[in-house]
Amino acid sequence: MKRNPSDQGTHGRARDKASSDRGSVQSLVRALSLLEILAEDDEGYRLVDIALRTGLSTSTAHRLLTTLEQKRFVQFDHQTSRWHVGAQCFTVGTAFGRRRNLGEMAHAAMRRVRDATGETVNLGLADQGTVLFVSQVESREQIRAISRPGDRVPLTCTALGQAILSGMKEEEVAEIVRKHGLPRLTPNSIARPSELYKVLEEVRSVGFAVDDEQNSPGLRCVAATIYNESSAPMAAVSIAGPTLRVTPVRIPELGQQILAAAREITRAMGGRPPATPASNASMRRSLTLLSRG
What we know:
Beta-Lactamase
C-alpha cells in the first residue's frame, strides 16, 4: 500500500517530538545528577572528575554545567578550575526550609490558642487545589475536631483554604476554580464562583475566614492567613471544633484570636501582611467570567 506523503510527514513530526521530549527529560535528569554530585563536596569538582562520576562525556557534562551556570544553579571558580553549587540552589533550598520549619515555628502560637479556646488548632498549606494539613495541636475535649497531618481537603471547603485564597491575586483564584472546580462536600459547601467571591470579600474585610459546616457536618472552623516576605499567602492557621461549642456567638472572639496567632506566625517566619487588600472589583470580574464559562 502506498503511503500518503502528508501522513508520513505527520508521523515523522510525531516521532521527532517524542524523541525531543525524551531527550529533554534525559538532559534534566542528568543536570539534576550533576547538582547532587556538586552538593557532596564543598571544595567542588573538576570537569574531568564530574564526567567520571556521572559516566558522561566531558563535552556533555560541560554543556549541562554551563546551562546550569546561566541560571545560577552552579558556578565555576576560574582560579581552581572547579565547579560548585550556585546561589540559586540556596534560594530554592531556603524556600523548602521555610516550609519544613513552619510547623515548628507555629507550634507555640498554636498551643496558646488551643489552651485559650479549648479547641483544636490546625496549620495548612495550599497544594494542587487542596489544603494540606501539616500540623495540629489537639483539643483536650473528648469530642474534638481531628484532621491528621497529611490529610487533604478542597481549598474552597475549608476556612484554611478560604483564608489562603483571600490573599491570592484574582487570576490565581480564577485559575484554581477553573482547574479544580468547586467540590461539594456538604450542602453548605460553596457551589458558585459568585458565592466564592462574596466569601473572599468578607474574609478580607474582617481578617479571618469561617467554615460553617462546609467541610463536615457538625464542624465549624475559623482561620487566618500566614504571609511570606513578599506578602503572599504561604499557609493558614485555624481553630476547629464541634458546632455545639464553636457557636456563632463565639466566632468574633475566636476570629480575633486566630488572626493574632496568624500575625505572630507571619512575623516569626519573616513575613509581611499585605498593606492593602486585593482588588475586589477585579476579583468580581474574574469570578463572574468563570461563572459564565
